[in-house]
């Protein structure tokens, strides 16, 4: 999901104010209800300690508030993903910058799993990806 946010920022999918608000909501919580987030520049985990984000090793288990999860998932679903590796495709790219798969293999009308690690085609009658179980918006 952090990669989807970073892609949205880089592709200017949202006005800066909307993006900042969405990124501020991108927090997960551990069993002690401590807030965690991912820095978009290096995709490293940070924990909120005395009103400061401090780099730390993330917990094994955490949860995300439902509203933030669905907002970011919907944003991820708007970006085209490579069918081979699931990486976001840049606008007007001829191939995937990660694995080299030609972009022409992707049809814009085809629904795809919003999970950036999956990105596989989603059946039109399914609510969840049959490969990884991610909800398909």
Task: Walk me through the structure.
Helices cover about 25% and strands about 15% of the residues. It is α+β, with helices and mostly antiparallel strands. It has a domain at about 1-80. It has a five-stranded antiparallel beta sheet. A hairpin with a 5-residue loop joins strand 1 (about 30) and strand 2. The longest helix is centred in the middle third of the chain and has 13 residues, at about 65-80. The relative contact order is 0.15.
Secondary-structure blueprint of this entry?
Layout: H1 2-10, H2 16-25, E1 28-29, E2 35-39, E3 44-49, E4 52-55, E5 63-64, H3 66-78
Antiparallel strand pairs: 1-2, 1-5, 2-3, 3-4
Quaternary structure: single chain
Number of contiguous helices: 3
Q: What portion of residues belong to β-strands? A: 5-15%
Spans where pLDDT lies below 50 across 5 or more residues: none
Question: What radius of gyration results from the CA coordinates?
Answer: 16 Å
Q: Please state the structural category.
A: alpha+beta
Instruction: Please report the total strand number as a whole number.
Output: 5
- SSE order: HHEEEEEH
Please bin the fraction of helical residues: 10-25%
Q: Strand order within the widest sheet? A: 4-3-2-1-5
Spatial shape: globular
